[in-house]
Prior knowledge:
Blueprint: E1 5-8, H1 19-27, E2 30-33, E3 37-41, H2 44-48, E4 59-62, H3 65-77, E5 87-90, H4 93-98, E6 109-112, H5 122-127, E7 132-138, H6 146-151, E8 154-165, E9 178-181, H7 184-193, E10 203-207, H8 209-217, E11 224-226, H9 234-248
Parallel strand pairs: 1-2, 1-9, 4-5, 4-7, 5-6, 7-8, 9-10, 10-11
Antiparallel strand pairs: 3-8
Helix pairs in contact: 1-9, 7-8
Amino acid sequence: MKVKKVLVSQPKPSSEKSPYYEIAEKYGVEIEFRPFIKVEGLTAKEFRQSKISIPDFTAVIFTARTAIDHFFRLCEEMRYTVPDTMKYFCTTESIALYLQKYIVYRKRKIFHGDTGKLEGLLPALNKHNREKFLYAVSDVHKEDLNVLDRTGINYTKAVMYRTVSNDFGPDEKFDYDMLIFFSPAGIQSLLKNFPDFNQENIKIGTFGATTAQAVRDAGLRLDVAAPSPEAPSMTTALDLFLRDETRNN
């Protein structure tokens, strides 16, 4: 069965120049964007149950913009004014620059890595190892905490937001020929929303090894996997799949 309608489990691209739109026009397929998961912040009451007191810390580690949003949201909900002396350590410059949404950037002590990983922050963390660090994370964070443990810094992991299933409504159509996922949580959400899901001719594509494994663990068939040498991105993998399908038909 030829693929005519594809569901990409991500938010709709903000730019009309997204490769997905080019693929849709190139092969005459309909592509819809609908996240299977969403981020939900912990309430101040829930966060207090962790017994973590934000005023006890002198520095914060951020690995995502979402973590920044929920850190300052919780501070506001708990009526805590973050002092000007707070230091911020971010895994990338773009995450560091995002802090401008909440603070006067040039007047703060902000440090960032260049690799996008915690390892890239090690020089800065070691230089400021007398600080008491709060590490703001989600409930499904992937970072290797051994990196922080090796530094010997004083840090506390604080879960401030979580990933939950973005449930489908009873009247919401599910008539797709292909589903594309980007995290194991997306597969879990699929099975939660449709416990009797029968794949049959529906194609499944994934990005990332852990997502591909989640498909196999669920007893489903994996039809497209990225990244690969031929397809470093999900859009490239989709393009190649639809090209081959067109040729074979």
